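To illustrate the input format used throughout this study, we show a single complete record. The first block contains the structure-token representation of the backbone; no residue identities are included at this stage. The design step must infer an amino acid for every position from geometry alone.
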């Protein structure tokens, strides 16, 4: 019913010219994971979450983290079982068939491309705040999109195109730079906790849950802990970008397990410390919707130099998130093209760097265009919708393959697979329906468009469906 399925054995087998180079080890993968996870979510969405849940945004972070932890365990098993590029798209192709795989791949376009754009917009906010603190004023028309009365968010466009150029230069070079940027981010967040935590005041947590737990409509907007969890969920995902690098890992079994689980563990600890420090240091109403909440906290506490350094660290290091997400998107497009569902010429890789140059160029242009013209919160919510659907697919794929391929080699086995998989699915579905109704409608429209593309192009040109001589068979 869902179309042909790939076999586990051939999913990672591809011919010359369509094979990614194995250049990454586990330190690169942990840095990729942390680089993707620690970014706009904690640097900028803390304020958005505070507006929706009040001090209970701390609880929202915990709930989103728990759901992501279940999904991360499923990803770790699938990535080491099917060590091929494509992440949730490839896993769905193996477990459920081509039709489901297309829907997941099309949804992942929202996750990675819009995540890149979200971070680019967040980066622009920190850059502008940092420049203004230094006494530099730029034309407002070039700092925000049409929604805020401007023309284009030029800094967001520039950073997206710059990262695109870096990825075209090569995967290993990009991953090595990413390690440096991750270190800068972690040092900056440590400085924030060091200055903000001593200013913790219990009264700032009262009332702890002003809008309740469930997601409810208040003054035209969804409020409550689950409404906040549905948006700050964006702050946690990124570990799945590690799974997209499976084909480029030197020792997939060891490297992917350490990369996925390790990056989630490090980031969960960091997030809880930062969230408690920020909300405890000042009233949540002052943080609500601030484009640079962490720097705002430090300025309010009369630490202007530390605030300046935090903003500078965000300016320097947030591009690492764009790098990882754009990397992930280019690999999803690459694999879909390699399977014939998109034009195959997009799957060509550079003979010099082993990276897919054409698809990376296309991805960078799309990301820059979205970042230049749309709002941060709307982009993040739509990205979350795509991610939640992908997480559901990976958890389902893990449980399906436990039944249909019980004897297949699993270098990492998820503990209590059916319990963890079910928890991931139910948690993601609850977060999905907690998103604003307009976001859900946009997501459905996007996938209806995707199905039209699949029926008009991909289904007729699928290498697997029509048993054509595909790169995997050559």
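Output of the design step:
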């Amino acid at each position: 019913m869902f179309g042909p399925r790939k076999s586990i054995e051939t999913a990672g087998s591809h011919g010359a010219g369509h094979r990614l180079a194995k250049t990454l080890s586990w330190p690169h993968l942990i840095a990729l994971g942390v680089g993707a996870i620690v970014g706009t979510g904690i640097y900028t969405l803390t304020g958005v979450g505070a507006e929706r849940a009040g001090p209970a945004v701390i609880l929202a972070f915990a709930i989103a983290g728990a759901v992501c932890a279940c999904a991360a365990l499923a990803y770790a098993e699938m990535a080491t079982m099917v060590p091929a590029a494509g992440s949730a798209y490839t896993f769905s192709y193996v477990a459920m068939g081509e039709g489901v795989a297309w829907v997941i791949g099309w949804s992942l376009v929202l996750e990675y491309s819009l995540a890149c754009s979200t971070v680019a917009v967040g980066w622009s906010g920190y850059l502008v705040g940092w420049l203004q603190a230094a006494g530099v004023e730029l034309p407002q028309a070039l700092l925000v999109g049409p929604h805020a009365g401007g023309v284009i968010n030029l800094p967001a466009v520039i950073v997206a195109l710059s990262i695109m150029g870096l990825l075209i230069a090569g995967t290993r070079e990009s991953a090595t730079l990413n390690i440096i940027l991750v270190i800068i981010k972690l040092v900056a967040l440590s400085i924030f906790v060091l200055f903000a935590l001593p200013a913790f005041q219990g009264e700032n947590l009262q009332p702890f849950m002003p809008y309740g737990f469930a997601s409810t409509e208040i003054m035209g907007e969804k409020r409550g802990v689950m409404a906040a969890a549905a948006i700050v969920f964006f702050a946690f995902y990124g570990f799945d970008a590690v799974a997209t690098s499976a084909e480029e890992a030197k020792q997939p079994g060891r490297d992917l397990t350490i990369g996925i689980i390790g990056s989630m563990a490090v980031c969960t600890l960091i997030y809880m410390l930062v969230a408690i420090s920020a909300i405890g240091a000042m009233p949540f109403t002052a943080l609500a919707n601030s484009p640079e909440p962490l720097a705002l906290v430090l300025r309010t506490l009369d630490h202007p130099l530390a605030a300046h350094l935090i903003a500078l660290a965000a300016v320097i290091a947030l591009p690492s998130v764009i790098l990882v997400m754009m990397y992930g998107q280019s690999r999803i497009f690459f694999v879909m093209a390699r399977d014939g569902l998109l034009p195959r010429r997009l799957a060509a890789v550079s003979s010099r760097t082993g990276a897919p140059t054409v698809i990376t160029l296309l991805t960078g242009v799309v990301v820059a265009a979205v970042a230049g013209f749309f709002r941060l919160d709307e982009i993040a919510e739509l990205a979350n919708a795509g991610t939640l659907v992908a997480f559901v697919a990976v958890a389902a794929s893990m449980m399906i393959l436990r039944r249909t391929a019980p004897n297949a080699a699993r270098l990492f086995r998820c503990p209590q697979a059916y319990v963890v998989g079910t928890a991931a699915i139910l948690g993601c579905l609850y977060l999905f329906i907690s998103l604003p109704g307009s976001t859900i409608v946009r997501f459905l429209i996007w996938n209806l468009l995707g199905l039209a593309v699949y029926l008009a192009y991909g289904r007729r040109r699928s290498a697997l469906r029509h048993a054509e001589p595909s790169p995997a068979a050559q």
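Structural context for interpreting the output: Residues 468-474 have pLDDT under 50 and may be disordered. DSSP finds 19 helices and two strands in the chain.
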